[in-house]
User: Fold this.
Amino acid sequence: LATFLQPLFYRTSDGQNFEEGANLVVETTANDSDGTIAQVELFYDGISQGQDNTLPYNWFLENLTVGTHTLKVVATDDEDATGEQTISITVNEENTGGGESLWLQSG
Assistant:
């Protein structure tokens, strides 16, 4: 059974607002109490952003668009059991200036 830990967020949290055009680095960890984690996959609004099988598991999302978005990570262990965590973020219209880079970490 994959045991996915609750996320620990840096500079953001579930329901956090971001500015249009921001870049977001998503980093997560996962633990399995009776085996090993085979892979972790990130979904942005239900679309896979890829799988990572090496710690730290991370992805880079560029140029966030206006709206409410869902980020979901799914950890799969060596026995194909899964665990997942989902958060929502809101991206608002850009006020001034360019995008900013933000880190999102789960662990």
The two ends are 17 Å apart (CA to CA). The chain has a mean pLDDT of 80. The chain has no helices and ten strands.
